[in-house]
User: Fold this.
Amino acid sequence: MLSRFFNQFFNAISGESRRFSLENRIFNITCIVTILIAFGGIVLNVINGIDYRLNIVIIIAECGLLILYYFSRFKQRFESTLITFLIICYISLGLGWFYNGGVDGPVIYIITFFLIVFISIINVKYQYFWIATCIAFTLCLFLLEYLHPELVAPYYSRKARFLDLAGSYIIVIVSILTIVLAIKRNYEYERKKAEIQREEITHQNKLISKQYKNRENQDLIKIKVFSIISHDLRGPLTSLQGLLNLFNDRLIEVDEFKELSMEVTERVRHN
Assistant:
């Protein structure tokens, strides 16, 4: 009962498998999970007294993600929304890095989460490019903070940093588990679907092979029948040909030809 409920819940969020590709379904789930991460981040920021501008950035990003989810889930515009999603993630994470403690904050955890997401939903042809982009983006944040530490808004207390990191860690871990379980579930579905298709193809091949063998047997029967017929007809036809040759060469008279013709006709009739 519980499993059925979760299946229906995931289908409602990600979309039906017959209409959406595996990457598209994972992307739809990722949008919802990211929105929940952002909401949890807002709550933690309020509790820890983080710079209010970070919450403004998160709220704007959430609105953008809701729009992207709508276009991907209900308008089936996966390819176009994916690029916008990546751009929104980079902008939000970049601002969050400097508004939320920099290298001492939780943004590095969230970047790791999105790196896993990128690998899951991006086309294989472009995966290495986006992975390299994500790593380069993170290294640039480290370098920029190292060169300009004044750009980073620090925590006002050790307790605030501890709560922010602990809360963010829990949110990111739950989000990663949700995405991984969604990927595993969809993978199992695709695997079962492929097995069913393979079984159907195997069954069809067996039917075709059986039909081919039946046709082969029918052809063999026809060959045997024609062989028997030709064998049975060979004697009368040879006699008829000899009779015609005798008549044409005027070696027999008309009366003899008629008499012999009647004998040949009887032989053909009995055969």
